[in-house]
Amino acid sequence: MKRLMFSFVVLLLVGFGMAVNSDPSFCCEKTNDGAWCVNDVESACSSDYLSAPTSCDSTAYCRLGTCYDSIEGLCMGNTPQRVCNDNGGTWDERDVAEVPQCNLGCCVIADQAAFVSLVRCKRMSSLFGIENDYRTDITNEINCIAEAQSQDFGACVYEESAERLCDFTTRGECGAELDVETVNQTNVSLSSAKTFYEGFLCSAEELATSCARQAGTICYNGDVYFVDSCGNKENVYSDNGDTSWNNGKVAEAGEVCAANDGSDKNCGNCDYLLGSRCAEYSGILSSASGEDHYCQTTKCVDRDGDARMNGEAWCVYDDGAGNGGDSVGSRYFREVCVDGEVRVEPCADFRNEVCLEGSIETSDGEFGTAGCRVNRWQDCVLQDEEEDCLNIDRRDCLWVGKVMGMILGSATSEEGSSTSYSNPSSDASDSGDAFNNPTATANVIAPITGQAVLGDDGNDETVLSELPGVCVPNFPPGLEFWEDNSAREICGQANAKCDVVYEKGLISGSEIVSGAECLGEDWALSANRVCTSLGDCGGAVNYNGEYSDDGYKWVVEGNEKFFAPSVAGVMTGGLTGRVVEIVGGWFE
Amino acid sequence: MWLVRLDVLLLLRRCDERFYKYEIVDVCMEKKGQVTIFILVAILIVSSLLVFFLWAKPTYFSEGSSISGFEGCVADNLNEGIDMLEKNAGFVDNDFSYSYEGEEYAYLCYTNEYYETCTVQVPFLKNTFDEGLESFMRDKVDACYDASVSDLIEQGYDVVVGDVDYNVEIEPGIVRMEIEAPTSVGSNKFTRFNVEVASPVYEMVMIATSILQFESEYGDSDVSSINLFYPDYFVNKIKRGDGTTVYSLENKIMKNKFNFASRSLVWPAGYVLE
Question: Does the complex come out with an ipTM higher than 0.90?
Answer without folding.
Answer: no
